[in-house]
Write a structure and sequence with these properties.
Layout lengths: L10 H23 L8 H28 L1
Length: about 70
């Protein structure tokens, strides 16, 4: 399979960026879905928000790291 579009140096670079963006989008989807509305605890709510924000940071960090080091 040829994934050469002139932006990425390696085929695994494409995969790493796609996975990173997918993880970030899952974090955004979690925030948009507002799962904390079903929790009765402040600790659970804070944990869900921190987890979703962490997923966004990890996903974008992975995409950036994979693309810049390839």
């Amino acid at each position: 399979m040829n994934l050469d579009i002139g932006v990425f140096k390696d085929e695994l670079d494409v995969l790493g960026v796609v996975v990173g963006v997918l993880v970030a989008l899952m974090g955004v989807g979690t925030l948009v879905g507002m799962p904390w509305q079903y929790a009765n605890s402040v600790v659970v709510t804070v944990g869900q928000i921190v987890g979703a924000l962490s997923a966004i940071v990890i996903g974008l960090g992975l995409a950036y790291f994979v693309h810049t080091t390839a």
